[in-house]
Amino acid sequence: MTPAETTQPKLGTALSSLRIPEYRMLWWAGVFSFMSVQGQFVLRGLLAWDLTEREGALGLVYLMFGLTMLATIPFGGVVADRFSKRSVLLWSQGLIVVAAFGMAFVVHTDVIRFWMLLIASVCQGLAFAFYGPARVAMASELVGRDQLGNAITLSLLSMNATRVFAPALAGVLAGIALVGIEGAYFLSGIMSVASFIQIWRLPNRPAADSAPRNPFTEIADGVRYVNSDRRLRRLVVCSFFVIMFGFNYVAFIPALVEGIFELDDVWVGLVSSASAIGAVAVSLPLAAHADGPGARRLIVISGVGFGIGVMLMGLVPSIWTAFAVVLVIGGFTTTFQSLTNTLSLTESSDRMQGRVQSLMQLSFAGFGIAAAPLGALAEWIGLRQAFVVMGAVAAGTTVIYRLLEIRDRRRTLAPGTASAH
Predict the structure, then answer these.
(1) What is this structure's pTM?
(2) What is the pLDDT of residues 188-219, one digit of tens each?
(3) Among 20, 35, 148, 134, which Cα is nearest to 85's?
(4) Contact 171, 44 (CB under 8 A)
(5) Long-range pairs for 378-381 at CB < 8 Å and ≥24 separation?
(6) 8-18 b/e with 16+ CB inside 10 Å = b?
(7) Are 151 and 23 spatial neighbours (Cβ–Cβ below 8 Å)?
(8) Around Cβ 324, how many Cβ atoms within 10 Å?
(9) Reported CATH class of domain 19-202+214-413
């Protein structure tokens, strides 16, 4: 068999979910949506730094995003389980459209104030709270459980591929006098509209169980469901702390690039894009093997690697070293997110997938909430030292997860011991 013949089946396996037309539309909707959202994250960071030049202000912008997600994402899981996922996606994406064009207007008319960035963060947090669980659950609905790992990895590929150039594009456009931040926001709005159109084309399937119930009871049922399964509970908790602390490195890239290395907005976009390059590099090989054995071992390797990478961000001596470290972090982050999401869905019943995903995505609420105290910590002990703390928590959490898994396995194998559940 020639190398070309060997490569073709592997590539076909890696892209197998995209052969399903409905999933392909969902995937393209994600590409356009993530293009918009990634650009808006960078632009809010640039505006927050330009208006205040304080790490604490960067953290506060993310705090509002996180608090909003924390308060609303449990309801997002309930809605994803009880209503048409297409309708949930349409309303969520529509809010992102409004936020993008609204920010373009206030920047263009020169009435921008710091509190407006907080409002934009709230809007995006609200949209994510409903968009995220519905999108992942709909992917499972469209491809089935046999290709679930492949579909989730390709979904993350759509997000990370946009991160290769969306932050850099936003930074470049923001630094061009004829375009500026308002033009970059306007382009973000156009991308959101393109995503809305793709979602509109998706089938409007009713929920498997649409009987009206008390939403608080439904949330409590989801929490009890996860809590009753030791391995699922441990996976959710591990993901929460790793993302909450480790992923916060992205919030402080503007402070690192502009505050320490004294470079401009373009470099902020380029460094932000580096993690996406690493993510894309591992996505296709991971997609081809995401439904195979060994996932839990890879979760540990990627989680520890992710934490060590963030710690190294506190030691980088130059912008090029920072670029290289962020490149590696991107690969570990994608592997960790892909496999934790796949395992959480695989181990969940169909009627609970939206609520399980809402609990998994609470990690991004935690990421936003932790940004403010971590920003205050960076102002107190220094940004570099704060990076080390963030990475140590992420790596340490993954090690604890692994040790508990080993303990349970030994108990299960011991004669006369009950199962791990």
Answers:
(1) 0.66
(2) 888 899 999 999 988 887 665 555 566 777 77
(3) 134
(4) no
(5) 378/55, 378/59, 378/252, 378/255, 379/54, 379/55, 379/56
(6) eeeeeebbbbb
(7) yes
(8) 15
(9) mainly alpha
Residue located via tokens 């309930």:
78
Length of the chain, in residues: 421
Return the structure tokens found at 104: 């373009």
Report the distance separating Cα 211 and Cα 82, nearest Å: 7
Nearest to 332 by CA among 288, 276, 292: 276
Q: Alpha carbon 153 to chain centroid distance?
A: 12
Predicted pLDDT at 213: 65
Work out the percent of the chain whose per-residue pLDDT is above 90. Answer: 13
Q: How far apart are CA 200 and CA 194, in angstroms?
A: 10
Where do the structural domains in the chain lie, given as residue ranges? 19-202+214-413
Q: Give the CA angle between residues 332, 333, 337 to the nearest 5°.
A: 120
Look-up of token digits 């809605």: 79
pLDDT in tens, 224-278: 888 888 888 888 889 889 988 888 888 788 888 888 888 876 787 778 777 777 7
Structure tokens at 233: 């509970």
Nearest alpha carbon to residue 283 among 419, 111, 144, 164: 164
- AA letter at 82: R
| Cβ neighbours for 249, distance < 8 A, ≥ 6 positions apart | 310, 313, 326, 329, 387, 390, 391
The CA distance from 374 to 386, in Å, is 7
List pLDDT tens digits, range 141-174. Answer: 787 766 766 777 777 667 666 766 666 666 666 6
Q: Are 188 and 57 in contact (CB under 8 A)?
A: no
Opening angle at CA 300, ends 293 and 223, nearest 5: 85
